[in-house]
Amino acid sequence: MTKQKFTILVVDENTKSIIKMQTPLCEDFLAISVIKAETYQDAVSLVQTKKADAVFVQIDDQSNDTIMFCDMLKRDVDFPVIPIVFLTIKSVDSKSNKVAFESNATAILSLPLEHYEFAALIRSFARLKNKEIAGFSYTKSIESKIRESEDRFKYFFDYSVIAKSMTLPNGEIQVNQKMCELLGYTSEELHGKKWQDITHPDDMDETAKEMKSLISGQKSSTKYEKRYLRKDGSIVWGEVHSSIRRNEDHVPLYFVTSIIDMTARKLIEGNLLQQINLFSSLLKILPVGVFMVDSNDGKPLIANEAALNYLGRGILPDANLHNLSEVYRAHKLGRSEAYPPEEMPIILGMQGISSHIDDMIVERPDGSDILLEVFGTPVKDSQGKPWASLVTFLDITQRKKAEENLVYLSYHDFLTGLYNRRFFEEEMKRLDTERNLPITVVMGDLNGLKLINDSFGHAAGDEHLKKAANVIKEAFRVDDIVSRIGGDEFAVLLIRTDFAEANEILNRLKIKTAEENTGTLDLSIAYGCQTKISVDEDILKILESAENHMYRQKLYERDSIRSKTIDIIMTTLFEKSHREMKHAKRVSEICEKIAIAMNLDKESINKVKMAGLVHDIGKIAINEDILNNPNKLSEDEWQEIRKHPETGWRILIGVNEFFEIANFVLDHHEKWNGSGYPKGLKGEEISLEARIIALADAYDAMTSDLPYRKKLKKTAAIEEIIKCSGVQFDPNLAKIFIEHVVTDLHEKSYDTKSK
Predict the structure, then answer these.
(1) What SS3 state is found at 572?
(2) Rounded to 5 degrees, what are φ and ψ at 562?
(3) How far is Cα 611 from Cα 605, in angstroms, rounded to an integer?
(4) Which strand (E) or helix (H) includes residue 274?
(5) CB atoms within 10 A of CB 299
(6) Would you list the DSSP string of 599-616?
(7) Are 157 and 166 in contact (CB under 8 A)?
(8) What 3 state SS string does 175-199 have?
């Protein structure tokens, strides 16, 4: 049996790829040969001489010549009608199908070709050729052209790799195998169905409208997108290309429709839209500013709400690559000129460079400034080339202030504002060099601070400290390292300053201190200084020597200063409450009389007399409103009152002059039976002086008018002392007081109102 000859023309400008595609295939009834055309011009010549039965064209490097060649073969009547097959090394998808459809290709196949796929295609082409040999010649008569066209159309319709349908005027459809696959039906299941049966309800009107435009002749062809209903109920998106066939009387016969599956593309578009919406939502809610510019010219593209709020202005049309810092009025922290463009993250991002800064100041339209921390990153395309520059930024104005405050506090005393011990010690090490000699260290100690804290409270002590710090700072020079290195201690480091010059400054400090002593509490500061004149001397030894000088001066002045402070405390207490002043003097007098009645020596009499005078000194720490309260005291107020013996002890114990009587003051509210306070002492565990003060204090309180009660008569007061003898009072003291002191008090016209 003689084999039918079938010639394949392969068009490929790449010789290597042609060789790969030249796959000889022998069939029982076909003798296949492959001819090559290096150029499209060669291919045209071979087709015109009818040496090819089918044309295979590789389209991966598609050019205008490819499209023109295909269009010429399909439309020019001078060329024989032969099938065209596109070849691609990529997978066939909706995009490549669309290219094949628009280029009038018969089919599109992926390389490398599968044997069965290639064989089936060649057989179908050979059958079409056999029909032509049997009577359908290649002549270009009108009749043969019509029949040829019908055969070709039927073949193209049935075997097209693109889904196709024919719709009759009554709506019934005929579909090819690709359309069946697209919708998930068999051809038998689709038989008799109408286009409405496979169209999504929401797309009915649009489809009808497009079909009507073809029937009316308003359009010769139409292209639109619609949704088809698959057998399983799912939806498939199609790009619809539709035209209408008419008879010789121009009556519509049927619609011819090609459908390119675009479901995947729609899914991508939907995902992209979701991403865009998500991006847009994120931009709105992000607390950071987002700003994007074009990498080519620097024109702003995007600015979110936070960016507009931070900058105080939106996207400015006159902004560009060269003037961004000027237009948005940006400059470096601590400088006034425009921010250098070559350092700006937005500019660096345009060059493909990521960056970060935290020193950009932007002047806003309302005149306020904002400090920004800016992160810049380039936005690149698939080739890695930046097409935009994106920056995100935060307002760090308050954070920067907090950081600066932390740095300040790490080297400064929070109360006085002077340098702290850490800074002083670091500077002392750093400045301890030969070129800074001579170096003088001055140590200072604020006298009486503890006494002031105990007497007037820590708030008063803090004010005293700040007052001293201001005086010291004003007396020394700007470059001197003036520091508070302890609770009441100060230290000053003076470089290139000898001992004589340092003493001149200290004399100036003493004058300024005296000028400040115009209030209730006088400033008293003990000083000591030492100078390092040789590089071999240890600076720590110099510091120690200055401290020793200071302590010697402090010891010398200590007692007189503390004694003076006690006087100030008593004066202040009496100013707060005149009743307390009268009470203190009367108790002192009674204590003296009891001591005399007991035949105590003169020194003991003086001690108990002084103790009686200051027994309530601890009340200086009690609120004036409580001391002068005209009503009966509440439990909380009594608790405050009960603290005064301990406060008095703390005030007096540090002063040599009052050292011994401090314990008398502490115990003067103890009771003979142990029910007193603050320690609950009992009997003779309580000092004699404290027992005397307790009796004198109670008698004066009973025989004096108080805001919440009238005074008792002498007899009633004596009866109360007798009643409390052995319970509250020492019974021996009570007897002596009643037998010898009370009578003497009243015989000498003891009057609580006259004292």
Answers:
(1) helix
(2) -70, -40
(3) 10
(4) helix 263-285
(5) 15
(6) T--HHHHHHHHHHHHHTT
(7) yes
(8) ECHHHHHHHCCCHHHHCCCEHHHHE
Structure tokens, 642 = 């009960």
Torsion of CA 482, 488, 489, 490, to 10 degrees: 10
List, in order, residues 6 or more apart from 749 with CB less than 8 Å away.
Answer: none
Pairing relationship of beta strands 289-294 and 386-395 according to DSSP bridges: antiparallel
658-664 LR contacts (CB < 8 Å, sep 24+): 658/563, 658/566, 658/610, 658/614, 660/607, 661/607, 661/610, 661/611, 661/614, 661/689, 663/687, 663/690, 664/607, 664/608, 664/611, 664/615, 664/689, 664/690, 664/693
3 state SS of 103? coil
Burial class (CB in 10 A: 0-12, 13-18, 19+), 379: middle
Distances, alpha carbon 21 to alpha carbons 12, 44, 113, 668, in Å: 9, 20, 8, 120
Residues in contact with 349: Cβ distance below 8 Å, sequence separation at least 6, in sequence order? 295, 355, 376, 377, 378, 379, 386, 388, 389, 390, 391
Residues paired with 289 in a beta bridge: 393
- Measured CA to CA, the distance from residue 244 to residue 252 in angstroms comes to 7
CA dist 87 → 124, 126, 155, 411 (Å): 18, 19, 19, 78
Cα 561 to Cα 489: distance, rounded to the nearest angstrom: 17
Greatest C-alpha distance within the chain: 168
Residue-wise pLDDT tens digits, 503-549: 999 999 998 888 886 556 678 888 999 999 999 999 999 999 999 98
Six token digits for residue 126: 């050979």
Whole-model pTM: value is: 0.48
d(CA 249, CA 245): 11
* Weakest-pLDDT range from 59-68, 184-193, 558-567: 558-567
CA distance 699 to 720: 9
